Amino acid sequence: MKHQAPRFRLQNPLLTALLLLSSSVMLGACGGATPDANEPLRGAGAQHELSTDDPIAQALAARLTIWVSRDGEPTYARHCRNAPGGCEARIATLAELLEDAADRHGLDPWLFAAVAVRESMLNPAAIGAQGEAGIVQLHPRGAGHDMRYVQDASYREACQSRVDACQGPVVERGAQHLADAIEGCGGTRAGLGKYASGRCGAAATYVERMMAERDRLESSQR
Predict the structure, then answer these.
(1) Does a structural domain hold residue 157?
(2) CA 116, CA 99: separation in Å to the nearest integer?
(3) pLDDT exceeding 90 applies to what percent of the chain?
(4) Is residue 22 situated within a structural domain?
């Protein structure tokens, strides 16, 4: 006759709850990758609407459109189509984040939106050749050196399940970095060069592409 090991069962509901709570605390202490579920969603995407009163959001939507059907329905870039809540929800959210951050830091919102388009095509999951991350591509050894989204790949992956993709802090840091560069270099073009390369007035091709993108976005809404 075989002897089976006795099964251990917790009969006390209070003890069970305490053990589950302690397990959650330990997981958090070990650096769990899941974003805070209690953190409010940033931007208009919480309503899943693309406002016709927001020209920057409309310009970004047009920029991410790869095809329009005969009945006028747009097909967006794949990374945006796969976003939680749909592409328009993500565009609305990211547009508001970009506009609000630009306003706080005294930036031209069309220019800052152009930076997001040229750097990542508004794809929060985009990773640059040097490990740059986020829609404004913060460098892991530069402006993103202490940003969890830039440094923690597991956290970054978990963020993709949110309509805002945890881009609030990323966009805020990018706006601050660009504003500081423009002020420190004495002008927009020189500041864009520093944003791209770390040196005022450098990266001439990058600067021209950013300025052209800025004008393209704005002119699409005239």
Answers:
(1) yes
(2) 11
(3) 76
(4) no
Q: What is the pLDDT of residue 50?
A: 82
Per-range mean pLDDT, top range of 19-23, 29-33, 36-40, 98-102: 98-102
DSSP code string of the chain:
-PPPPPPP----HHHHHHHHHHHHHHHHHTT--PPPTTSPPPSGGGGT---TT-HHHHHHHHHTEEEE-TTS-EEE-HHHHTSTT-HHHHHHHHHHHHHHHHHHTT--HHHHHHHHHHHHTT-TT-B-TT--BTTTTB-TTTTTTT-HHHH-HHHHHHHTTSTTTTHHHHHHHHHHHHHHHHHHHTSHHHHHHHHHHSSTT--HHHHHHHHHHHHHHHHTT-
Interaxial angle between packed helices 188-197 and 167-185, expressed in degrees from 0 to 180 and rounded to the nearest 10: 120
Number of domains the chain is built from: 1
Model pTM score: 0.81
Instruction: CATH number of the domain at 75, please.
Output: 1.10.530
- Structural domain range at position 57: 42-219
Condensed to tens digits (0 to 9), the pLDDT of residues 119-165 reads: 999 999 999 999 999 999 999 999 999 999 999 999 999 999 999 99
